[in-house]
Amino acid sequence: MNYRHFVTGCLCLLSMHVSAQSIIENKSEEELSLMLDEVVVTGTGTEHFLKDAPVQTEVINRKMLESYGGSSLEEILSSLSASFDFNQSDMGSQMQVGGLGNDYILVLIDGKKIHGDVGGQNNLGLIDPARIDKIEIVKGASSTLYGSDAMAAVINIITKKNTTDDIFLSNATRGGSYGELRQSNTVQFKLGKVTSITNFQLKHSDGWQNTTVEDPRKYEKPVTNSINKTANRYTDWQVEERLEYQPTKNLSLYAEGMYYRKRIYRPRGIPDYKTYDLAYKNTSLAGGGRLNLKNHNYITLDINYDTHNYYYDYTFETWEYNPDNPNRPLIWKAGDRSLQSDQERVLSTAKGVFNLPGMNRLSVGGEFQYDWLKAPKRLDTGDTASDYTGALYVQDEWSGLNNLNVTAGVRLTLNKEFGAKVSPKISAMYKLGDFNLRATYSEGFKTPTLKELHYLYVRQMSIVILNMGNLDLNPQTNRYVSAGLEYNTKRFNVSVTGYMNWLDNMITLVTIPTREAPGDIIIAYDPNRVRQYKNMDDARTTGVDLNIKWMPISSLTLTGGYSYLDTDANLASEDSHGKAITLKDVVIDGMAHHRGTFSAAWNKGFNHNKYRLSVGLFGRFQSKRYYQDDGNGKAYQIWRLNTRHQFNLTKQIKADINAGIDNILNYYETTPHGLNYGTTTPGRTVYASLTLQFGKQLRANRSRSNNTEE
Asked: What does residue 25 show for φ and ψ, rounded to 5 degrees?
């Protein structure tokens, strides 16, 4: 392929003058008012009514969020979408969708990629649940629009937008069992053409312990008095500032910054005698703008700088292996802090959306990302490693027929180490009365991360594990196909979608013979296990998703979701003599065949809606989770009851009270520490929250972010 011609074509398309109307603008006022709550943007990067979206999109809207009253994004997604599962630990959320983990799931906030690696997992603690207006979920490979991290799903968190000529204030305080504390505050004011938005959030938990028993395989004598917790105590806080400036009606500019801190407190005692806590620090700076052109066309430009730092905060004197001088160990004293990794990213993106004659909507764009990794004790290259990737993409949405929409796109990715790759995608939707038929074919491309290439570090847990990078890794690719049928009426919606996802060269940590590790490291640590990143020969996931929504009466909403999943992979492993590497057929870690959700939400207004009561019952069901090592996770079901009391005190002052019981049946697991869980819930908990608000709020789909047209 002649890449120079490809780039030239994209630049020419950016400059075209166009005149067609947007999809939303072509709808009647009556149709718009009926469907306004169902506008989505994530599947194509442009606005569509949900029932008309050519890419199947799952939505968790504000009404569902308010009825549920969740305290974290993990809790919300796992309880309101059957496709998600989490296995939380100190090292991150370990999210999974369709059999694939966090590395293949892209998380966006208002269309922008978040940055924050915690043990290889995105830090979802950066997202304040009190500020979420709705969540849009697109499953399958979306690499054409969003790049390499979107091979399994894209989650777009759309935040609440406030409109005021003076000031907007909001405070949400939540408390619950096990020392749970949540605090969220927003202060917004406008001076002329400048708007300032300040957000602060604080989270704390004392943690909990479901068992005092350790995995008997890891100790010579049984450990039944362990002090290890199922979830450790932690505190984190975050402050954000955003300045928006609108010099003209068609031009808007912004600048924003964010600072985040988290510390995880680990108990010291039987059996591990931990000598340090874990600490994280994130900093972000961003700026950009949007220019609205004639005929509903627009151009956006954004640039982001992000850092994520990971530390050990020592609580007791500790001697560590010194790679620079193996004969002289490093000595850390209580109160010292040691940098483990510093990840920095510069990401710049540009996008243009143009309505062309013939009912075509064209999206073109490009991005450039530069990554640095500084890890003085964890890299085989010394202190630092770096990488960069550039990309150009083009997508066309054709809706020349009233009952047919075809969306096709292609992305060209250029990586410093692994060269060029073209990733196509095509989706189609055909409307037949109240039925929608959708189909998608897409491809993805993901290069090895700096950690997967260069990491060399020891995890000292109940056993000593040496993890190694691998310079011989190949990029991962995937092919995704899906087909679905949806039925819509005013009060009833049901959709079923089947999919298959084939992955080539899937990267995972594999146990290898100890002799393959560097000799000086083996002598220093004498590891019990050595693991290295390897390419699987191949992997496949197959699944079916079913979603139902029914409103038998205007005040009652019933929803149900079911997800079936099957996975298959070829994994490298030792033979019975520990000498040769062979391939064996395995399932992907964390896979569960069956997951389901249920909700019944009732709400009614009283006294001319000055008081509104909402009551919601929510259920989550999951079958056994399968793992290669350390046992399988148990099947479980969890039920939750939430009540919400909304008081409209004046036109601008509102008060909300949420109170509820989570895990009504008091289910929790006593699986020994070190083995896999189905869920880490502590059992039955209670909570209550109070939210006070002064000012007005817009619906999310009436506002516009800088990266997507909402």
From this structure: -65, -25
